[in-house]
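ok posting inputs for the magnesium ion job
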Amino acid sequence: MRQFLRRQRYLIDYSLSALARRPGKHLALLLVYTLVVFLLASVMLFTQSLRREAALVLAQSPEIILQRQIAGRHDLMPAEYLDRIGRIRGVSAKYGRLWGYFYDPAVRANYTLMVPPPGSPAHGEPAPGDIVIGAGIARTRGLEVGDYLSLRSARGEPFAFRVAALLPHSTELVSTDLMLLGADDFRRFFAFPADRFTDIVLQVRNPREVRKVAEKLSLALPDTRPILREEILRTYDAVFGWRQGLVFVLMGGMVLAFVIFAWDRAAGLSGEERREIGILKSIGWETGDVLRMKFWEGAILSLTAFFLGYLLAYAHVFYLSAALFEPVLKGWAVLYPDFRPIPFVDGIQVATLFFFTVFPYTVATIVPIWRTAVTDPDAVMR
Amino acid sequence: MIELRDVKKVFNQGRGNALWAVRGVTLDLEPRQVTVFTGPSGSGKTTLLSMIGALSRPTSGRISLDGTLLSNLPERFMTQVRRRTFGFVFQRFNLIRGLTVLENVMLPAYPLAPDYGDLRRRARALLAQFGMDAKADDKVEWLSGGEAQRAAICRALINAPLILIADEPTANLDSARSRELIGLLGELQDLGKTVLVASHDPLVFESARVSRVVELRDGLLAEDA
Amino acid sequence: MLLSPAVLALNGVSFTVTLMLVLAAGFALQVVRHWDLTSGSERQLELERRTYLIATLVTWSFAAAVVSLLLFVYNAEQMATQFVGAMCATGVLNAHPLGWPTLFLKILIFFAGAAWLMLNRLDNQAPDYPLVRVKYWLLLGFLPLAALEAGVQLGYFLGLDPDVITSCCGSLFTADGDGVAATVAALDPGWSLAAMYGLGLSVLGLGTVHGWRARRGASGVGFALSGALAFAAALAAIVSCVALYVYEHPHHHCPFCILKGGHGFIGYWLYLPLFTATALSLGVGLISGWGHIPSLTAAVQADGQRFTAAALALFALFYGVATYAILTSNLTMTGVWW
Ligand SMILES: Nc1ncnc2c1ncn2[C@@H]1O[C@H](COP(=O)(O)OP(=O)(O)OP(=O)(O)O)[C@@H](O)[C@H]1O
Ligand SMILES: [Mg+2]
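and the output
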């Protein structure tokens, strides 16, 4: 065992010096390798943190949302349904919500207008005439606390709201286009019928009872549709995983190009390198020793590229807000969130990334390395 | 004692350009002697030496060393025998550029993984023995031809082999350095090593230190041809 | 489902490994056909050099298979949020009939690969490569296993349907269900513990005897067999009993949740030694049969002793960790169950 470890040390020593002796050649490979890891890791960390962020936000949202449907279309919820639901075992709270979308032609963006639900954190219902807005709206309209925001209501008359507060940065991903206002303001602004809500939410403490409650609801109120939080979460997970996978497939071309590049590098040895291997074999290195030495060379390169690429991606996503992806994502919405995800590292991600980069590299170099390693030991005598 | 029995070597076997480089050599080589193989260019000296030194395998025939058969071993085991038994000195020195003299000398021992301190000490002692201690930490590309060849000899001796094989060791040296080198080979014989040299340099095969000259012609011993 | 990166990676790896083994098997076939050590021909030299390529390909395939086994379990763990009723990897494996077979095939490949590499290592120590044909025929048998695994895994991931309501460890491993998992969970914990420790004693005993007698060329098949039995008993005991102590919950029979951080990653301390020790003991069984070949006798003894010692140490570690988990648990089942 000691002998084994010592031999590996000698081989590592030699491959390090071999790498150092030809910096130009290996630097190019290292650069490309790092770039590939960086791009894949960025996509991965970015989508993963979007998904986590969404999950964190959803964690606070109610377990069940009840929507009314007419002819398969979403309709307003009569307030009396709250009473018709009555008492269901396991439901700890239920209330109607008021929310909707508003298109602001001044900035050509959609806002989400919402009356804060009872007991929502930090902000109670804003006083009449007051609003609380998300950072995206504040940025695009250049608003600060105390400024007035003027919008045209559903009846065509202008409405001036005073900005009472801004929503915290930490929830920007979901709150960037959010505008909170009082219930009366909401109804007047949208000319919303007084005896209706947008939907009804129910809180269920025990996750095992959620399905039971949903079943009872659809029996009691056949023209409604319950939406479960766990289902939203599931859809999110699937959608994010799917998006990420699609990007990976698109990037498959890049990985393939990298594999060909790595193959070419490993196969296209310079005369000098070939002679070096020949010398090693003639002075007593065995084919296996050369294979192992080359393996260490690849391992050193791979680990360096992997760590460099991963760290760069980490910095890119978590400290620079994925600046490189901004132009792509910005097309989705005018109110692009200034998004600072919470840093985290995940074993499954690292393992997957490893299989997308290091594994193809290794496979691509096996045959070329073997070809080098079986050089005739007497070649240097000719 | 090295015994060769009807050793043959063919290159590109079964193809149109097949070439019989060695066509049946039977020979006994005594230990602790300096033997020189000579003959015209292309007569098979290098090919024969590489087979004796377990660098390559004969196409047919047998080579044995002190009674154990070498010629049938797979490469893996040939290498294991070779690195403990033979040391090699080449015409073009074949030192690895970019490494220091000391590192070059230590290289053949890497796969055997001896204690690092021990190995360094051995390498330095060898370099001192051949008057190279001042150059130990220089890069090999700065060495003169004579120095490079002495570094190569140190490298050949690092695993303490019994047999030293030198292929045209004087080809890149002037006559003064060549004489010096022959002197060194002679000293090795005094230390109990068997020395096998291939050369068509008269300075070598006419030297007084040479115990035996074997002449090759067209892949055969001159006496058989 | 198929497009999640981890799933893409898993399928990519399995198919790449299959391809690598196809390549290796192709070369192996040539070697088996034309091998002639007495010949000094260039073709024989080329074949000998091919053996290095074959061994390298198999080694990397094996390494990839090991990592893919881990990734498979992690991924199942992570996908649990996408299935109704799944709380951990168990639920995700249950969501399609090919889930468990995929896992079992991966484990089988792990054992087969480890044993083959040990045989290869043994053969490489004899200058006449006496097992060259044996090991390459075995390799040809290994190939369909890898191909099957790749296919079954693909079928599993293609067939996964998030709308299927699956049952998870809570319901799957309850004693009143049916199927293998339920049967295992329903095992009397006392008996399963007794079986684990009993077979543990037998494997440690047989191993010690084998390590001692390997010098005289004793067969290691008994040791290998007891290793396999101890492995099965250990898994059964983990599901029916040890896991309960870890979770400190009398009905939670999940073999995967113990891998999570919440339980101090104790699962790794159980599974890594157990799997490695079992692989080593199977390998010992495989190599011990060749001591009668003169050029291998010494190597069989040396390797046999070395691997046996390593297997014994790892088995001992496993039983130590399992005992530790039981003793330090706040759950008391003695008196309640037996
Ligand atoms: N790998 C090879 N493939 C094909 N032919 C070879 C190979 N190696 C040597 N030969 C041929 O074998 C013959 C003997 O070569 P060898 O190098 O042994 O001669 P030599 O006596 O050492 O010549 P010199 O004095 O020029 O070094 C030559 O005709 C050479 O071209
Ligand atoms: Mg020559």
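notes: The radius of gyration of chain B is 17 Å. The CA atoms of residues 12 and 18 of chain B lie 5 Å apart.
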